[in-house]
Amino acid sequence: MTPEAVTPEPALLEADRVDVVRGGQYLLRDVSLTVRAGEHWAVLGANGAGKSTLLSLLGAVEHPTAGTVKVLGRQLGRVDVRELRAHLGHVNPRHPLRSPLTVRQVVLTGTTQTIEPDLWHRPTAEQLDHAEELIHTLGIGHRAEHAWTTLSQGERGRVLIARALMPEPRLLLLDEPATGLDLTAREQLLESLDELRARYPEVASVLVTHHLEELPGSTSHALLLRDGLTTAAGPATEVLTTELVSACFRHPIRITHSEGRWSARTRRGAE
Ligand SMILES: Nc1ncnc2c1ncn2[C@@H]1O[C@H](COP(=O)(O)OP(=O)(O)OP(=O)(O)O)[C@@H](O)[C@H]1O
């Protein structure tokens, strides 16, 4: 080994030449993706491109029709997926909670991975401290005693990220976390994600979105999907380009990257 050789970070997710076929239709075809510790991937594509299908494989919710998926080193199909899911932070913006639990209580349900509090489980002092730390990191300390039912959508999004981080997952999966947020709420959410990534540098994440404006500045890599196929994948600055994003969305788009953030608009005269 040469002195300059650097050992790569361990792969937390490895999808290798994955197909997903449902109802005789390819939802994903020959998709490969490796996510290492500290990497923050964005998965982008138009409606129906297969983004949520890919995230459900990575979250051990669905199995591939062909190819292999290894999550935290364990291959789907050969492992108890419930046990595996306990080590993943999966943020579902459609969290089905209806009861007026407080923010703190909702965050603590992350330890048991239940929607309602598990009455048989008393949180330990460490878990209570960890919940406080996450609540503050996500900027919702002033809402800790407020009921879930009274929170805005943006506040709920941040509560769900704190909840997902309770079991100290090495991998955070985020499905369109900024959808439906107003400008301030979106910016606060993205800022929280940047802070979180700085605070827990060993955690990796995969974030699905349609919109480049919804990418945190800490996004390190991107994968572009079109009709279930990967059109580009790699470091964000190489993939989120005018040419590659236009090809992915089949639309002449101009991409700008300024102060660490991306934006997209139609290229005038090129339609
Ligand atoms: N169980 C299923 N059987 C057949 N087709 C399905 C099934 N689930 C999803 N699809 C189709 O697969 C395609 C990919 O769906 P998916 O939800 O992964 O796309 P997406 O990129 O997340 O879309 P969106 O941006 O609209 O959320 C869509 O055309 C969808 O209608």
Structure, described:
- By secondary structure, this protein is an alpha/beta fold.
- The chain has two domains: 184 residues, 3-Layer(aba) Sandwich (Rossmann fold); 74 residues, no CATH class.
- Helix content is 29%, strand content 29%.
- It contains eight helices and twelve strands.
- The strands form three sheets. It has a six-stranded mixed sheet with strand order 6-7-8-3-9-10, sandwiched between helices. A four-stranded antiparallel sheet has the order 2-1-4-5, with helices on one face. It has a two-stranded antiparallel sheet with strand order 11-12.
- The longest helix has 17 residues.
- The radius of gyration is 19 Å and the shape is globular.
- The protein starts with 10 loop residues before the first strand and ends in a 5-residue tail after the last strand.
- The model has no long low-confidence stretch (mean pLDDT 90).
- The structure holds adenosine-5'-triphosphate (ATP).
- Adenosine-5'-triphosphate binds next to strand 2 and helix 1.
- It holds the Pfam family ABC_tran.
- This is Putative ABC transporter ATP-binding protein.
